[in-house]
Specification:
This protein is α+β, with helices and mostly antiparallel strands. The protein has 2 domains: 1-33; 38-132, Immunoglobulin-like (Sandwich). Helices cover 20% and strands 32% of the residues. The chain has 3 helices and 7 strands; from the N terminus they run H-H-E-E-E-E-E-E-E-H. It has helices spanning 7-12, 17-29, 141-151; strands spanning 39-45, 48-54, 63-68, 71-76, 97-102, 107-115, 118-125. The strands form 2 sheets. The protein has a 4-stranded antiparallel beta sheet with strand order 1-2-7-6, with no helix packed on it. Strands 3-4-5 form a 3-stranded antiparallel beta sheet, with no helix packed on it. A hairpin with a 2-residue loop joins strand 1 (39-45) and strand 2. The protein starts with 6 loop residues before the first helix and ends with a helix. The relative contact order is 0.15. The mean pLDDT is 80.
């Protein structure tokens, strides 16, 4: 596998540290991407998404959903009550896991629900009014001069 050196990008840009860090993280994690548990990400609205994770065998008490520093962290720890049982075949993976999702700026988790072996996490992007595009009225220079004369 080829390794891409992003050092020249760090030297030539100012204020793009978050993008460079994200690129480093993505390129470093490509060989180690976990496949358990399987999940879906669906778009529910223009600014809304839902992450659905298959968590068969886990109860609500075994699951943890946490948001920390623009990262959504979903983890599960199975209680040790199964130690007394003897399995002839064990095909359901009940192993502990931790799955991380990087959230974009202004994306927040609005809720989580657990039903039928699926954990659903709803996300919503809420851009503050100060950051939304706004239209600036263009006036002629005659109007600006007339307002200045009226003010004095």
């Amino acid at each position: 596998m080829r390794r891409i050196d992003l050092a020249p990008l760090h030297r030539a840009t100012v204020g793009f540290d978050q993008i460079a860090d994200m690129m480093d993280r993505i390129l470093a994690d490509t060989a180690q991407t976990p496949s358990y548990p399987p999940y879906n990400i669906e778009k529910t609205a223009d600014d809304g998404w839902r992450i659905s994770i298959a968590v068969a065998g886990f109860g609500e008490a075994d699951l943890s959903v946490e948001v920390r520093e623009n990262a959504l962290i979903v983890s599960a720890r199975k209680s040790e009550e199964d130690d007394n049982r003897t399995f002839l075949h064990r095909g359901i993976a009940n192993r502990a896991f931790e799955r991380r999702f990087t959230l974009a700026d202004h994306v927040r988790v609005t809720g989580a629900s657990h039903e039928n072996g699926m954990l659903h996490i709803d996300l919503l992007r809420e851009v503050p009014e100060a950051l939304k595009p706004r239209r600036i009225e263009i006036t002629s220079s005659d109007t600006v001069e007339a307002k200045a004369v009226e003010a004095s």
